[in-house]
Description:
The chain is α+β, with helices and mostly antiparallel strands. It has helices at about 5-20, 45-50, 55-65, 115-135, 135-150, 155-165, 185-195, 220-240, 260-275, 290-295, 310-315, 320-335, 340-345, 350-365, 370-385, and strands at about 20-25, 30-35, 75, 85-95, 95-105, 170-175, 205-210, 210-220, 245-250, 285.
Amino acid sequence: MTPGADLQTLVDDLADELGRSVVVNDPMVRMLCTSRHFGDEDAVRVRAVLQRDAGPEVGAHVLGQGVARWGGPGFVRGGEELGMHDRWCVPLREDGVLLGLLMVIDAGRTLAAAERTRIDEVARTAAALLHRDRTGAGDRERERLLLRLVGPDPLDRAAAVRESGTTGPGAAAVVEVGAALPAPEVEVALRATAGSPGRRPDRTLAAVDDGRAVLVASRPDVDALAADAGRIVRSVEHLLGRTGVAVAGIGPVVPRPELLWRSAGRAAAAARGARLVPGLGPVARWDGLGPYAPLLQVPPAELDTDLVPAPLAALRADPGAARLVETLRAYLDHGGSIPRTAQALHLHRTSLYYRLDQIRAVTGLDLDDGRDRLLLHLGLLVTDLTG
């Protein structure tokens, strides 16, 4: 198996970060890719780099320590007779299958705990990269077919429906990673957790593209689809070592495969809502977006603060903005009920009436007028989505 450029970059970056030589070997301890030297090289490493093979006696020495059965990282003892220093070794596994060994030279066993933690993080990504490189052509073709089913071209969608033989109702989910993280790491994390089409739950297909995973379920159980998407969100964040970077959206069930693109589009909108409105996420369903749903259909480039109505913009610019906006939101959310609003804000009614009069004065709107209320409420929703 020839390693990809992403794996080589991962190894080089880790080595530079640690200031130590790093190598990824296959399960038989044959070198797949290696970093440059850092002055810590031993005879085994030099031979492996020059000849692309450290020799069978080195493989036997390493495997003889049981690394293929290890459940976690540990030290591989060196051997003076081999010219080999100790190495920190992390078995690279995917679904329990040993794909390779990541090794860092550590002759004095001086790696700090934080460095070992970082190596473990990189090892998870390396394992996913090795698994990706093993993925068969058939799986990649199924991925492309799935992306065509939910793509923007109507003619291509129709052709994909015919080619797939898909029938009956379905629903889509979208998992997105929105932080400014390296694209290869994001793709690897999504592939490792969403998996290839053959590894999803029954009747669910998955594809990874452009920082997102798309799931499509036939004869769907939307609750199960949401649970699966939530699991992927948690697993992706674990692999990336970051929290709050992944979200998911669940689209509605559609009656036939020709409409899966619509479910996927609404799943993407729901994922966007989950990212922008913390109360909706990290897994948001289209049918649970409420009044945010139509606003999330507005293209992101066009949904900006310019859409905030001028009266609300004036209120937000007022010196007492935080208090008055909170009061307005509570008043509108409680349908204009004075008793319920006062209770929610823990205010005396006299204080609430005073604040409402201030809001009227700043906005110039009549809070007893349904259209004025709608304008302000819609404006508040826009601010939730635009900041």
